[in-house]
């Protein structure tokens, strides 16, 4: 059976990984002060987006995911002929309409696919499973990377489904902005008062950064750290600790709001890389989704791993 994998551009994975595993991306369109950007996980375009964002400072952004009709068209025109089964894993539904759009599209796809496949002499049924990953950005990348790994190992559909369900409960993502200006600006535009003026002013003056956790379908503030570099060190040390304890899945994902070369030069990342190698864990580093960037600004860092132990940041 030819098994395909579809996700949206909130998913933080390197382009070479996406290409190698034939992972199909549902693009997200970003409307900003300087025009329109379509996020298709293109590394050069994404890095350029972050350079422009850093230069212009705080700005207004709106994001628009693929509609149900666009998803339906993608499947019926292409994917139902390329694959016999597709797993579609979306960003957590509490943060986006992509899951709802994909679910709505799936009903139409499964109703209309048969004549198209029969015309191409494909008589086997087409199967489509849509999952809310319960994750976002680096943690969504983790879930998708794990499904890709299982597909490459010829795992059964049942085995893949069970692993997705387990990861929905154990994948933990952590996101830290470099600058609070964009975070507060977007939060106010959306009516989110979690980043108030006083905490913003104090945070900016004292270089205190919030750490946001994505876990089991929700994003919540986890902690505050004093200084960006110190915060990155704590997050990477936390991942190392869980690698040494033993992970649910042999994958750790890291993303950065800009050129990932900035991260590879960090001593904390070098320690993480060494720990991953020692424990046979694949470490995936890439540009952060622009959907994350428009909400937290350029220069942010995200990391994700799956562990039975709920992580605590001291």
UniProtKB/TrEMBL annotation:
<dbReference type="InterPro" id="IPR050270">
    <property type="entry name" value="DegV_domain_contain"/>
</dbReference>
<dbReference type="Pfam" id="PF02645">
    <property type="entry name" value="DegV"/>
</dbReference>
<dbReference type="InterPro" id="IPR003797">
    <property type="entry name" value="DegV"/>
</dbReference>
<dbReference type="InterPro" id="IPR043168">
    <property type="entry name" value="DegV_C"/>
</dbReference>
<protein>
    <submittedName>
        <fullName>Fatty acid-binding protein DegV</fullName>
    </submittedName>
</protein>
<dbReference type="GO" id="GO:0008289">
    <property type="term" value="F:lipid binding"/>
</dbReference>
<keyword id="KW-0446">Lipid-binding</keyword>
């Amino acid at each position: 059976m030819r098994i395909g994998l579809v996700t949206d551009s909130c998913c933080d994975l390197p382009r070479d990984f996406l290409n190698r595993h034939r992972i199909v991306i549902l693009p997200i369109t970003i409307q900003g002060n300087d025009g329109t950007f379509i996020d298709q996980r293109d590394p050069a375009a994404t890095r350029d987006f972050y350079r422009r964002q850093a230069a212009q400072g705080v700005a207004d952004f709106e994001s628009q995911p693929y509609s149900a009709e666009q998803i339906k068209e993608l499947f019926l025109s292409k994917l139902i002929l390329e694959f016999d089964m597709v797993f579609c894993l979306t960003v957590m539904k509490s943060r986006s309409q992509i899951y709802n759009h994909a679910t709505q599209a799936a009903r139409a796809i499964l109703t209309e696919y048969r004549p198209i496949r029969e015309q191409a002499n494909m008589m086997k049924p087409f199967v489509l499973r849509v999952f809310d990953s319960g994750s976002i950005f680096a943690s969504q990348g983790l879930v998708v990377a794990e499904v890709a790994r299982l597909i490459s190992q010829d795992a059964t559909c049942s085995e893949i489904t069970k692993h997705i369900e387990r990861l929905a409960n154990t994948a933990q993502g952590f996101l830290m902005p470099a600058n609070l200006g964009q975070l507060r600006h977007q939060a106010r535009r959306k009516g989110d008062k979690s980043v108030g003026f006083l905490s913003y002013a104090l945070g900016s003056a004292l270089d205190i950064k919030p750490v946001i956790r994505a876990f089991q379908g929700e994003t919540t503030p986890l902690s505050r750290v004093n200084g960006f570099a110190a915060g990155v060190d704590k997050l990477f040390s936390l991942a190392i600790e869980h690698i040494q304890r033993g992970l649910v899945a042999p994958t750790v994902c890291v993303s950065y709001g800009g050129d990932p070369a900035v991260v590879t030069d960090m001593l904390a990342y070098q320690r993480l890389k060494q720990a991953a190698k020692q424990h046979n864990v694949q470490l995936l580093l890439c540009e952060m989704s622009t959907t994350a960037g428009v909400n937290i600004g350029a220069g942010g860092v995200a990391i994700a791993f799956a562990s039975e132990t709920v992580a605590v940041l001291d």
